[in-house]
Write a structure and sequence with these properties.
The complex is a heterodimer of chains A (270) and B (270). Chain A has ten helices and no strands. Chain A has 270 residues and is an all-alpha fold. Chain A has one domain: MetI-like fold (Orthogonal Bundle), CATH 1.10.3720. The relative contact order of chain A is 0.12. Chain B is mostly helical. Classes of the chains: A mainly alpha (270), B mainly alpha (270). Chains A and B meet through helix 1, helix 2, helix 3, helix 4 and helix 5 of A and helix 1, helix 3, helix 4, helix 5 and helix 6 of B.
Chain lengths: 270, 270
């Protein structure tokens, strides 16, 4: 287990290495170093630009320390309200969509074609970052919060339906058999054998997803899908860092608050 | 057990009347809140633009297919940049977050005040999306890969720090006492009793975050922070949907591969 330097009079114990095979260990270290050198080498650093930027950064920090809630309060209010309502509607819609898709994506209760379709939807939703999805929905619905709601609802599917499906695949099969043996149909089997086993966790995950959606609702506005994000980007484009600071403080506070509330709810559910 | 008696016949019910009333109240309140929120979204939407969504989607898909396959040759460099942003960003975050997590964990923190300050850093880092961090950093360093790396790092510090300090708090006390009893210094106690316990979860958390960061790095270019998002932004602004389609395909492949890599590595570690 430990390497012992037996030749020396003072024997030293050394921590066993993580990877036992010496060649593999040094090969991985070497590979990592080569990759790091290549990666760092490919990052172009414009030091003159950064020097100018640091000066701006100083002004930025000064502005951030004096947040300006007042001068653009109307814009901020509309943006925050939009973000919050987008979060509520998209989470509810996302949960409603995730339940059937999650049922369809569970290996043990869905027929193969449906399983594949539902897994496909989940994979697409999980792969693309919210903003990429938002681009497509903005093309479809035009600028505005509706595109944001659709984006977040779709993104919720990738998260919630996947975890729900995994939960369903791990349920105790005994109640399933028992309910089936009574001659219950598919819907009754789901209601009485599957849902009771997964619903508590489903509620917990939905509350958790509410948090995530709130955080994401602050950025989909960058591509025009509503919420506080567009207001925030506009403040950066105008160099209104004191307003940006106010918006960031509001976002951080809201995220912290919902996180606290959702943690409380999830604790009570368990 | 809640039993309802009607015409001298006892009928079993799952919940008693008070619980059922409360449940109905909850459902109604939830529905009302959702409808009010939907009202806000609806008011913010130009419905005449949303009405032709199916046609828009049709046109969009028509223009996207076939994707511009030859465009892929211009995407290798942005792809490399995207991976660099995610990897170096995660690396920087790990280097900063691990010491922070020891300061934030209840059982290893030097002082409660230090703990609360560190927790504040973690919360702020976590609450701000990497795209918003990118907005801020781009204003300082100018557009480019460096801004992306810093933005990813700033967001990931909170994520890795939070999960890491929670895993430190879950470590067993016995090895700590055993090492302390040998007369080891504080640092030695950390490295020989706590570190070995949390190393696997640290590695798992970091790989997990790297996987998420690959996804986030694909969109940072939308605010100028380098990577494939720059090309996506250009393609969207020029309405070159065939190029955008190619970018979607490349992103899809990248994320699928990174997810497989991260799953394999995590399986190997744990």
């Amino acid at each position: 287990m430990a390497e012992v330097a037996s030749s020396s009079p003072h024997r030293h114990w050394r921590k066993p290495p993580w990877i036992q095979n010496r060649w593999l260990r040094w090969g991985m270290v070497l590979g990592a170093l080569v990759y790091l050198a290549l990666a760092i080498g490919s990052v172009s650093v414009d030091s003159a630009r950064i020097a100018r930027g640091l000066e701006r950064g100083g002004r930025m920090i000064a502005a951030f320390l004096q947040p300006d809630f007042v001068s653009r309060w109307d814009d901020i209010q509309i943006g925050v309200l939009e973000s919050l309502t987008m979060t509520v509607v998209s989470t509810i819609a996302g949960v409603l969509l995730s339940v059937p898709i999650g049922l369809g994506a569970a290996r043990n209760i869905a027929p193969t074609p449906i399983y594949l379709i539902c897994r496909g939807i989940i994979t697409v939703s999980r792969t693309f970052q919210e903003v990429v999805i938002a681009i497509v929905f903005v093309v479809m619905f035009g600028f505005g919060p509706l595109a944001g709601v659709c984006t977040l609802a779709f993104a919720t599917i990738g998260f919630l339906a996947k975890l729900l499906a995994e939960d369903i695949e791990e349920i105790d099969p005994a109640p399933l058999e028992a309910i089936r043996a009574t001659g219950a149909g598919w819907l009754k089997t789901i209601t009485y054998a599957v849902m009771p086993q997964v619903s508590a966790r489903l509620v917990g995950l939905s509350v958790y997803r509410f948090d995530i959606n709130l955080r994401e609702s602050a950025i989909v506005g960058i591509v025009g899908a509503g919420g506080i994000g567009s207001t925030l980007q506009a403040t950066f484009n105008r160099y209104d860092y004191d307003v940006a600071s106010a918006i960031l403080i509001i976002i951080i506070t809201l995220v912290m608050l919902t996180e606290l509330i959702s943690a409380q709810i999830r604790k009570r559910l368990q | 057990m809640p039993v309802h008696t009607a015409n001298d016949v006892k009928i079993w019910q799952r919940y008693d009347t008070a619980t059922r009333l409360r449940q109905w109240g909850g459902w109604i309140a939830g529905t009302v809140i959702t409808l009010i929120c939907w009202q806000v979204i609806s008011n913010g939407t130009r419905w005449e633009f949303a009405a032709d969504a199916p046609q828009q989607l049709g046109i969009f898909l028509q223009r996207m297919f076939p994707p511009d396959w030859s465009y892929v040759n211009q995407l290798w460099k942005p792809l490399w940049d995207t991976i660099t942003i995610a990897t170096l960003g995660t690396l920087v975050a790990v280097i900063i977050a691990l010491p922070l997590s020891f300061l934030a964990a209840r059982n290893t923190t030097p002082h409660p005040i230090v703990r609360y300050l560190t927790l504040l850093v973690i919360v702020v880092s976590r609450s701000v999306n990497s795209l918003i961090w990118a907005l801020i950093i781009v204003a300082i360093t100018g557009p480019g890969v460096l801004a992306g790396i810093i933005a990813i790092a700033l967001r990931s510090i909170g994520f890795i720090g939070k999960l890491a300090f929670e895993s430190i708090e879950e470590t067993s006390r016995e090895p700590v006492e055993a090492i302390t009893a040998t007369g080891a210094s504080r640092l030695q106690v950390l490295s020989y009793s706590i570190l070995p316990q949390v190393m696997p979860s640290f590695a798992g958390i970091s790989i997990f975050r790297w996987d998420i960061n690959i996804r986030e790095a694909t969109v940072l270019g939308l605010v100028g922070a380098g990577g494939i998002g720059l090309n996506l932004n250009a393609a969207v602004n020029l309405l070159r949907w065939d190029q955008a389609g190619m970018i979607f395909i490349v992103i899809f492949g990248l994320v699928l591969i990174s997810e497989a890599v991260s799953a394999q590595v995590r399986k190997a570690i744990i």
